[in-house]
Amino acid sequence: MNTFKLALRGLSRNRRRSLVTLLAIAFGFAAISLFAGYTHNVYDGLARQSIHGELLGHLTISRRGMSTEGKLDPEHYLLSSADVARITQLLKDEPHIKLIAPRLGLSGLVSNGRASTIFIAEGISPQAMEKLQENVLTADEVRSGMYASVIKKLDPAASEKVLLSEGLAEMLHLKPGDTAPLLTNTIGGQANALDATVGGLFNTGNAGSNDKFAFMPLALAQSLYDVDSGADRLTVLLDDVARTESMRDDLLGKLKMAGFDVEIKTWQELSDFYNQVHDMFDMIFGFIFSIVLTVVVMSVANSMGMTVVERTREIGTLRAIGLKRGGVVRLFTAEALLLTLLGCAVGVAITFAVRYGINVAHISYTPPNSASAVPLLVDVDAGRTLFTAMMMLLVGSLAAYLPARRAARQPVIDALGHV
Description:
Subcellular location: Cell membrane
Number of helices: 16
Order of helices and strands: HHEHHHEEHHEHEEEHEHEHHHHEEHH
Family: Belongs to the ABC-4 integral membrane protein family. LolC/E subfamily.
Membrane topology: Multi-pass membrane protein
Largest sheet: 6 strands, mixed, barrel
Distance between the termini: 30 Å
GO biological process, one term: lipoprotein localization to outer membrane
Domain ABC3 transporter permease C-terminal: 287-411
């Protein structure tokens, strides 16, 4: 306790230098915490967009080889209606599974009667689509009002209605209620066509797919593809994203024991965009963290170095009355520890104040390759914030060690005579 009291008095002797160093630590800590909160919001948003917005779910079950050879020989790799029923029966009692949804992907041409363009469609039941999108938006995103077109809804009472992406509908000058002829190949390679009704529009959030994507009821997709209640994969929705890996292993073992030669992919494996953005922001965070940490080290080291020079005679006096060299080191290390601790505390206050201002300001921006603006929001990343505080405390204390060690090694007579 005496060491910390002396350390606090030492910091108060030169208030200006201590304040400047404290503010350098505080603003550096706040910068890291705010960027960590922003990246956390981006990660969370991308994960929700992949799982719920793109309707990937947490796990995707398909026959082994479907992703590589299925386009060349779809009939061989499709799950039959009997397979879908058996797998659903096997997994329905799993406690952490909320939904098992058959899916069928197909592509073809869509027309407005005068011009045609390609489309890529997903067949899914309206009830499964609604279930998959339950957690796609947070409360802040709902309040922002920028995601009105994100929610996609098929009409369960109208199997002929399809949803078109906004870019695709704009290209063909189609609007809800218009008729859109669809032309596809069946599983046997024959041409098949029917008239669908535009039931609504949605935004994929990606400029690369917003002019060609569509959703349709699973029954309509099966009719176009000429399959009897089959599916190319099953989408599994869990109650917790943290269980994704463990459930993948459990379900894979259970299905193999039942004789199914399947593969199960997680949403991370299916979402290349999420992985690329995650890796990019991790690199940026590490770069910013190293720069701020260097600034903090230099600030604390400079402050402690100046303090040692100015208090050389005091150090000599303390040594003369019996303070050991280790005591001198502990004293200056305690000063650096207190200075860094106070800086982090002020940094936390700055972080919450700035975060509140950003979140209520309704700032928006359009990310690269995005089809719409998104709100700029900052979360609280407790894990990275605590890690930053611990690293700053450790590095700040180490930054004071060398000048303190140098001061403790001075001869007592020379220290007392220092001018």
